[in-house]
Amino acid sequence: MDNNEPSQAILTAISQIPFGCVTSYGEIAKRAGLPGHARYVGYILRNLPEQTNVPWHRVINSQGFISFPPNTEQHAEQRLRLQAEGISFSPTGKIKLSAYQC
DNA sequence: CCGATGACGAGAC
DNA sequence: GGTCTCGCCATCG
């Protein structure tokens, strides 16, 4: 159903992120054919079900930080998942540039 | 219908 | 380089 709208395109774009890679919201929107709709991407992800084949944890903001506030399960989980893929974090919580090599 | 909010980005100062 | 403001789309009150 084309009614799936860009939301499906965004999910697809995220699922296209290779292992050990991180991408920003703007980049996802751009890949989905919606340049400038970074917020729309975040909105879709927020509606994501608990079990999904979409590597949402590889999606971060352009600042290189996890968008979730600290002390939250989602923030901790995303951090653990990224570390499990070989991605490292700075003392400030920022993702190291070595993860952007893709 | 209008205003406010949200896992953001980019430009302006 | 840091801070502020506007813009984008969709949903909620």
Features:
4% strand; two-stranded parallel ribbon; DNA-binding; mainly alpha; 38% helix; 102 residues; single chain; Arc Repressor Mutant, subunit A
Explain briefly what this protein structure is:
The chain is mostly helical and 102 residues long.
Describe it for me?
This protein is mainly α and 102 residues long. It has one domain (2-101): Winged helix-like DNA-binding domain superfamily/Winged helix DNA-binding domain (Arc Repressor Mutant, subunit A, Orthogonal Bundle), CATH 1.10.10. It is built from 4 helices and 2 strands. It is globular and about 35 Å long. The structure holds a DNA duplex (13 and 13 nucleotides).
CATH class: Mainly Alpha
Largest sheet: 2 strands, parallel
Order of helices and strands: HEHHEH
Any idea of the CATH topology?
A: Arc Repressor Mutant, subunit A
Tell me what the CATH architecture is.
Answer: Orthogonal Bundle
Q: What's the β-strand tally?
A: 2
Overall SS class: mainly alpha
Helicity, in percent? Answer: 25-40%
Residues in β-strands, percent: under 5%
Low-confidence stretches: none
- CATH superfamily assignment? Winged helix-like DNA-binding domain superfamily/Winged helix DNA-binding domain
How would the global form be characterised? Answer: globular
Termini gap? 32 Å
Instruction: Compute the number of helices.
Output: 4
Mean pLDDT: 86
- How many domains? 1
Main-sheet strand order equals 1-2
Calculate Rg over CA atoms.
Answer: 13 Å
